[in-house]
Amino acid sequence: DDEYHERQEWRDMLAAALTGEVMGSEKKRMKEDIPSEIIDDGDQPSQPGDSRQQKTRYNSLLHSKHMDLWLGCRAAIRGRTPMQEKQTIESLRAVHADTTLRAVMEFCVDRTAFVNEGDVEVDFSTLCLVQLQKLLRRVDYVEGMYPTLDALGVAKPVYASPTFQEKLAAITSWTNISVRLELLYKMIQRWTGSEDLNLYSTTTPGDYMSTTVGISKGDIQTPPSATQRVFQHTPFVERLLKENGMRKIFEQSILTELEQVMISARADLIDKGAQLTGIGLPTCNGQMQELLRFPPRLLQTCLQIRLQTTQNLKNLALPQIDQLIEDIRDSLSVACHIKRSFAAVTKPMIYWNPEVRLDDEYNHTLRRCLKMYFSLLQRKLRLVSEHGSNREFETIETQWPFMLEVVRDIDGGTYEMALRFCQQTKYHVRGWIRVLARSLKGPPACDTMSSRDLAKWTSRVLHSIRTPILKCQRLVRTIQDAIVNSADYVFTNAHSLLAQLVDTKHVLVYTAGEWETRGLYILGSQALSRRPHLARSLLSDCVVNQDLADEENDSCYLLVVCTNAEFSWTGAT
Predict the structure, then answer these.
(1) Cα–Cα distance between 339 and 40 in angstroms, integer?
(2) What would the pLDDT profile of 497-524 be if each residue is shown by its tens digit?
(3) Do 336 and 411 contact (CB within 8 A), yes or no?
(4) Does residue 209 contact residue 225 with C-beta atoms inside 8 Å?
(5) Alpha-carbon distances, residue 513 vs 321, 413, 517, 535, 563 (angstroms)
């Protein structure tokens, strides 16, 4: 039918386009349009350089047609003839091209010209941005005078030079970064409702208070004007916590975009830091520092509010405790991710030093959150024991992998983890030992029971205790493998020991007198001399770091020597 026939025609046309037949026919038609004078006569024998000359003339013709088409479009848009447009462009090129390119090459910022009282760095960056935007608009204007950038490079060799392109790329990158950061800063201002990103001064639209016009009792009450309305002030973070969970808050597009922009800005500023420093542009300003501080500050405030709310809860049931534990797990996971990301972005490098660090209150809040987590876990285990369940050790063991992920990002977290897990395990082991001791005394009527009934009762008791005891052994083995990572030795001859350590190429770890004044000296293995950054981790962590337990780092260890005799070390440090 007609519909099928039409569909088949469309399929044939699409197949022709995809297989290149349309492109081939168009190329053939363009070649036929070439004047015959630039095509060799078929009767004449071809010369060795004819094909190259034909290609050159062909490209020249295409370039001429492209120029005519570009010039005709500009003329039509501006209501001029092609000849008038050509004269106008030539005059504009003569006036603007060289001066603009020279301005880019000579551009340099004088910091002393912008020093003012108050926020010096912010004003300086803002004024630099205004100047660069004007300069880049001039460059765009000059580039628009030529059909292609290659044509501009041919007409003005300065534009195509590597020096000019590197400087233009650095200026463009710095401008784009500044504009994106300024836009993000304004978005977060509108999101929080605060000009200075203060998380506790948010004004949210609410029901206004009615005002009375006049004095007499019968006067009419009317709503106030926009300037007279008194809105309810709701803290921004409290509103967020009511609307979303902790993880969803930091999965919002504005915060994920902020993280991506910071990572991209850091990479670009490090890559083009040499050019920016030579120009005099700052690689970091006050606005960038505020944006870097915002996610940790927001998270810290969220954690403080959540901790305050949790501390005020009393007589919690087991499902409520499980929900609170899950919330704090998410909070700790997000907090450690934010801390790692912050440390990675703010790590000082050449041409990049934002001079921003986490507040001590942030680490203190993380420790409080970790202690609250263990406190809730303890309450849950007590309730589990009271209900007669034998899943205490299983519950503790399920928390172990998660704790290993987060405690290394919390100052003092490994010590808190080791202490709490040992305490909880010890408490419940004692509980089951008491249960076993009571059971081994036998049933109340054991004297009147037959030997067969007594054997059944004993078997039933041992079977009920067998499962928790096996889980306890598995948990204790896991904790022991991770925590028991040291041993004590006593040597009668310290000088002989030190001589052997020198011969085996051990190294002295110097602590700037902090340990040496107390008669304690730290010696490291030979492998540690190639990885000095591991010394602090080996000495401070209470839990074995699996990253250090591989074959490559297997020989890294520390010796803490305590001696009353004179300590004389002649080895490496």
Answers:
(1) 73
(2) 788 888 888 888 877 777 777 778 888 8
(3) no
(4) no
(5) 47, 26, 6, 16, 15
